[in-house]
Specification:
There is one protein chain. The chain is an alpha+beta fold. The chain has 2 helices and 11 strands; from the N terminus they run βββββαββββαββ.
Length: 206
């Protein structure tokens, strides 16, 4: 998966940074179990673009988002600029990669990895090479996640409470966590809190 993340007492969470106001592709998954707001999902291998940035969570989020947005909106090696002439000429356009949700931000020792999941139409080999060497492309392995969905603003105290709740559900169902919890936010920042979709996610053993 991919997910968007902030640190809450050692808990890693993902932070969605906002997208354009249009329908976006989300990573496909296979539902394994659903019980109200609690789910278990199997995600396939996913191709991502990511950058490592430093600073506080808000600064890193903005800087990382801008770097990745630059890549998907034409900041890659296959971009072709054609001067205007008459008549109008046809030529390959810049590869503009559709944005997907969620966006993932991972903290580690005052540095952050901000990550976009690439659309399913792309493979690691078919993605254009980024112009900016800070943008890295890689493939994540298939992963099973325990997920707890909630609405509202994903403030640190809300994320911490939901993380504890999800960890309790994982323990109660005798599932084995294999990584830290993450928070994925799927909506632009201007979305009213009661309409927002958030998910705390924990990778678990199959």
């Amino acid at each position: 998966m991919t997910a968007r993340r902030i640190v809450l007492g050692g808990t890693i969470a993902a932070v969605f940074l906002g997208t354009v106001a249009m329908a976006v592709e989300e990573p496909a998954f296979k539902p394994v179990l659903k019980d109200g707001a609690f789910e278990v999902r199997d995600y396939p291998a996913l191709v991502v673009a990511e950058v490592t940035v430093s600073g506080d969570q808000k600064q890193a989020a903005g800087n990382g988002f801008r770097l990745l947005a630059g890549y998907i909106f034409g900041g890659n090696r296959t971009k072709q600029s054609i001067a205007m002439t008459a008549p109008v000429a046809q030529a390959p356009a810049s590869q503009k990669i559709a944005m997907t949700a969620p966006v993932t931000q991972i903290q580690g020792s005052k540095t952050w990895v901000v990550r976009f999941t690439m659309p399913s139409a792309y493979s690691l080999e078919s993605l254009p090479t980024p112009n900016d060497p800070r943008v890295q492309l890689r493939q994540l392995p298939p992963t099973r996640f325990a997920v707890l969905q909630f609405s509202g603003l994903a403030r640190p105290e809300a994320v911490a409470a939901r993380t504890v709740e999800l960890e309790s559900l994982v323990t109660a169902r005798k599932l084995t966590a294999v990584g830290p919890a993450a928070l994925a936010q799927y909506n632009p920042p201007w979305t009213p809190g009661f309409l927002r979709r958030n998910e705390v996610m924990i990778p678990i053993a199959r």
